[in-house]
Amino acid sequence: MEPVLEVNSLTMDFGGLRAIDQLNLRVMPSEIVALIGPNGAGKTTFFNCITGIYTPSAGDIFLSVNGRRERLNGLKPNRVTQKGIARTFQNIRLFQNMTVLENVMIGRHCRTSSGILGAIFRDRRTRLEEEKVVSDSYKILEKIGLDRFVNELAMNLPYGAQRRLEIARALATEPFLLLLDEPAAGMNQKETQELDELIVNIRDTENISILLIEHDMKLVMRISDRIYVVDYGKKIARGNPLEIQRNPAVIKAYLGEDPDA
Amino acid sequence: MDWEYFLELLLGGLTRGSIYALIALGYTMVYGIIELINFAHGEIYMIGAFTALIVASVLNYAGMNHVAVAILAMVAAIIYSCAYGFAIEKIAYKPLRNAPRLSALISAIGMSLFLQNYVLLAQTPDFLPFPSLIPDFDFWEPYAHIISSQEIAILATTVSVMILLTVMIKFTIIGKAMRATAQDRIMAALVGVDINRVISVTFVVGSATAAIGGVLIASHVGQINFYIGFIAGIKAFVAAVLGGIGSIPGAVLGSLVLGWTESFFTGYISSDYEDVFAFLFLVLILIFRPSGILGRSETQKV
Amino acid sequence: MNVRGELKKSFQISAWFMFLTFPILVIRVNTVENVIEWRWYNMAIVGVSTFLGSALWRYLLSVKEKSQRINAASPGNMTSFQKAFSDKRFFYPALFILIGFVISFPFLFSMYQANIMITALIYVMLGLGLNIVVGLAGLLDLGYVAFYAVGAYSYGLLNFHFGLGFWTTLPIAAILAALAGILLGYPVLRLRGDYLAIVTLGFGEIIRLVLENWGEFSHGPSGIANIPRPSLLGIDMTLTQNTIFTYFVMIGLVLFTIFVVNRLQNSRIGRAWIALREDEIACQAMGIDRTRTKLTAFALGATWAGMGGVVFAAKTTFINPASFTIWESVIILCIVVLGGMGSILGVISGALVLTLLPEYLRAFSEYRMLIFGIMLVSMMVFRPEGIIRNVRRTYTFSKE
Ligand SMILES: Nc1ncnc2c1ncn2[C@@H]1O[C@H](COP(=O)(O)OP(=O)(O)OP(=O)(O)O)[C@@H](O)[C@H]1O
Ligand SMILES: [Mg+2]
After folding, report:
1. What is the dihedral of CA A180, A182, A185, A189, to 10 degrees?
2. Are residues C67 and C121 in the same domain?
């Protein structure tokens, strides 16, 4: 089977700093892959390269969906989203002064098409499209468990709900691959538990592949099929959760030179 | 080719550029620290010139010696500009430090509008003749048609201000704190830099150089009104962007480039579009090289 | 609250301001006649007013801090004013009275008043247009007046050279202004917000300076005179009749603007604008084309300025570059900021307040720009959302 995402020797330099160094990574269809590593390892930068927010210094990024393989390098972020990659942000970037529902409706933007004239004249097609956007968005909110907040401003949501709204908004773009940047950060144990069910549920019901950055190792070990470990922009290990837990290089990266475990 | 004319334009451009540089420094320093285009900076310069005019007139009236008048007027201009710069930051920018950038910018525009009209209403809408504070030295007479002693004074002052400023930023503690704040405000605060103080000092220093520029150019041109700050401010801003906003050598370089281009353009081509030219320049730089000549292009962190 | 501490602070600030304003407010020199005027009363005024003002300032800041905390906790963010508005029993009679007043206005009051109202309505239209750019899309455009000039000169020149009338030029000017918006917008919309402000300011000034200097094209600083007023099926009208007619034309145009802007605001495009304002990067990551969205905002905003320009030219029958300075852009910005960025009702109120107040309060008019400056700063500090906060649309769903 062809991987949904295939990244070959990706490198990203900021001035003199090499944030990502010759990184290779693959995500298979319906797979949950975790990307872990210490702070500053380059994980978020990796997401930014894939989604077109940064232009990588070298390397290739391919997306394969429905048997078509496309190179994503050099595409603008909105084009990447349109091709089928959606993401969330580590430091929440919701549209704070819009309602929860509107946040999700923005996600539907790239899958709808009505324009200026449609907006002014509100013809039948535009009206139908708008109604569908509203009901689709509401369905997504129901699925994520945020439907009681529909008309609330995003900035008034509790923290955990904001993180979930980021996921809802990303799902609204109908992705094949979902990139989650530390979705459990700042959540309590119960919320994390629910999140972990949600992620597995998204994979199972929608056939969406998931690439996940996370510092909560329990969560990572519970749900990932495979794990990549990076440190200083380099891949230091790859494998299933059990293999990673036993890998000496990983233990060293996380605990420093002398692991006394 | 008429070499004397060329030389005249070259030196004229240099003088012009030096003045822009004195104002551009304030823009660039403030931008470097709080990423705000201080729209009211041009007004600080105008207020400096007005203060100098008022103080000089009062002292002249009292019959004071010429040199003392010049010095006192300059000192008063610097003190008052610094005080205004300090107050402006506290009133219009400090409460907005965590607000969207658009808000701070609108507040800055409001401040600029206020100060212009404050001087307009309190003083006069008309141009006022400005006394020549720098005398024409006799010994310089033979060369004065190429470069006047006024212009020499301007150049000398600019160079000394640049040197002082560089020393301050490179070697003093507050200079180091400024550089740290410019790099990363939150980190700087964490390691114990008093951010409020650094920002205030930045405004005060920027205002002082603007005041010096204001007095020099007013005495050179010979007249001022409430509006001089706006055009000069815009041009100095163009110079700062041209050099790479946030960079001090960049501001100087950008100012000189703008000064020369304007001087040669008006000297050889046409003076009708002198002001259009600065704007056109700005638009072109921002489109083709938004980071400026010396600025580094940075990827916005996400 | 510690009263003594507050008093001391106010004293210090008042002393500081008396020092600060001393040379400029107290001394006035006349370098021509060599006289010096000392105005000590100004120092007293400054002392007293800053003493009170600084207390008020600190009080408002503390109120704002508190209200932010409450606001974050409570879901509803409608003001009582807006609640009253959405109450049908109140809304319909109020609307009825309003319509009656608007229709009878030019017949009840003098032509002078009607002319003032026409100007106010032009500003309503300009404010609503700029609101698309600044309020919705979050792009600080300081050169908006350029599009106003494009509209006015389109009418002036097309009429002068080809004899085109008001009604023919109105759509042409709208299109030309939109094109100008795209043309000017395209190269600069990649720029960050603050650079955009300066570049648009630059463009505005370039257009004005070109109009001033390129005499063959624009008739230079002397401008274009004898521009015809709006016509109605070629009927000859007296000046009074024409003013009344222009008033109604303007009412019609404003209603049209409100209709279109309201529909745009609650559409796919409008949501994209707001999302862009809220977070550019997240917006792109949601699949929205940044450049295109910004360009539509720029072009659609410019359209209204173009039409406003035509009406302005037709109303004054004379235009010259002096009407299109940067300060005009700043006034329109004030309207949007005061009224409430993104709120249609707010912008309308803002435009009416800022244009009518200086007309009716002569004392105010001298200090107009000064007060606008203070207003911009204090609105940003205390109430960035404007007098009327933009309320998001809500949806109801039935649980199945
Ligand atoms: N736009 C940028 N300009 C310069 N350096 C950057 C930029 N973005 C990231 N970096 C640097 O790249 C390195 C990797 O950062 P990144 O945010 O990818 O780490 P991370 O693995 O996501 O860490 P964390 O777990 O803390 O989120 C860091 O040293 C960071 O400072
Ligand atoms: Mg990260």
Report:
1. 70
2. no
* Cα C182 from Cα C272, distance rounded (Å): 18
Residue C306 falls inside a structural domain? yes
Q: Which two tokens stand for residue B74?
A: 């300059």
Domains observed in chain A: 1-84+175-261 (3.40.50.300), 97-172 (no CATH)
* pLDDT beyond 90 at A211: yes
**Confidence class for position B187, pLDDT limits 50, 70, 90:** confident
Q: In chain B, which residues have their Cβ closer than 8 Å to the Cβ of C25?
A: 122
Domain count, chain C: 2
- How far off is chain A from B142, nearest CA to CA, in Å? 53
C95 within domain boundaries: no
Contact between residue C273 and residue C390 where contact means Cβ atoms under 8 Å apart:
no
What atom of ligand 1 comes closest to residue A43's alpha carbon? 21
Strands A209-213 and A226-231: unpaired
If asked whether residues C51 and C118 sit together in one domain, one would say no
B159 or C191: which leads in pLDDT: B159
Structure-token pair, residue B90: 């506290």
* pLDDT of res. C80: 55
Question: In angstroms, rounded to a whole number, what is the distance separating the alpha carbons of residues A219 and C267?
Answer: 40
Q: Measured between alpha carbons, how far is A99 from A106 in angstroms, rounded to an integer? A: 11
pLDDT(B124) > 50: yes
Atom of ligand 1 nearest to the CA of A12: 12
Which of A54, A68, A72, A51 is CA-nearest to residue A12? A54
Closest-CA distance of chain A to residue C267, Å = 6
**Cα gap B251→B236, rounded to integer Å:** 8
Query: How far is Cα B25 from Cα B248, in angstroms, rounded to an integer?
Result: 6
Name B102's Cβ contacts closer than 8 Å, sequence gap at least 6. Answer: C138, C140, C193
Structural domain boundaries, residue C282: 109-382
Q: A32-36 and A17-27 as β-strands: parallel, antiparallel, unpaired?
A: unpaired
What does the mean pLDDT of chain B come to? 86
Q: Is B302's CB within 8 Å of A15's CB?
A: no
Are the Cβ atoms of C330 and B114 closer than 8 angstroms? no
Q: Does residue A176 surpass a pLDDT of 90?
A: yes
Rounded percentage of chain B residues whose pLDDT exceeds 70: 95
Is the residue at C329 inside a domain?
yes
Domain-ending residue, one of C26, C54, C73 = C73
Residue A147: exposed, middle, or buried by beta-carbon count in 10 A (0-12, 13-18, 19+)?
middle
Atom of ligand 1 nearest to the CA of B298: 3
pLDDT tens-digit series, residues C135-175: 999 998 999 999 999 999 999 999 888 888 888 899 999 99
Q: Residue B284: what pLDDT? A: 82
CB C281 within 8 A of CB A93: yes
The pTM of this model reads: 0.89
Task: Tell me which residue in B106, B123, B234 faces C380 most closely, judged by beta carbons.
Answer: B106
**Residue with the nearest Cα to atom 11 of ligand 1?**
A19
Q: Judge if C39 and C161 occupy the same domain.
A: no
Instruction: Using the predicted structure, report yes or no on whether residue A259 has a pLDDT greater than 60.
Output: no
Those residues whose beta carbon sits under 5 angstroms from the ion ligand 2 are A 44, 90
